[in-house]
Amino acid sequence: MLLSDSSSLYDLDLQKTREDNVEELVSGVNVVLDGLDNMKTRYLINKTCAKHHPLCFQGAIEMEGNVAVFRAP
Question: What is the tens place of the pLDDT at every residue in 7-35?
């Protein structure tokens, strides 16, 4: 992500992602960034984003990494 103003401030809302709150957590966002290391939560986020949110997945192991963007229909 390229920021035009490096002095920008962001509010973080750290919460556990659960089936009963995942819709609320992703509502009102333009894209969901998945940097998770937990497969249960990753599947939950993927299932939710498949309905109506772009999902950017990224992962790295040792010296290799990958990035993929998935768009909802």
Answer: 667 767 788 899 999 999 888 888 888 88
Residue 52: inside a domain, yes or no?
yes
DSSP-assigned beta bridge partners for residue 64: 61
- Look at the block and give the residue holding tokens 């192991």: 61
Number of domains in the chain: 1
What value, to the nearest 5°, has the Cα angle with vertex 32 and ends 30 and 64? 135
Q: pTM here? A: 0.70
Query: How far is 4 from 44, CA to CA, in rounded Å?
Result: 32
Residues in the chain, how many?
Answer: 73
**What pLDDT does residue 30 have?**
86
* Residue 28 lies inside a defined structural domain of this protein: yes
* CA geometry: angle 25, 45, 56, nearest 5 deg: 100
The residue range of the domain holding 53 is: 22-70
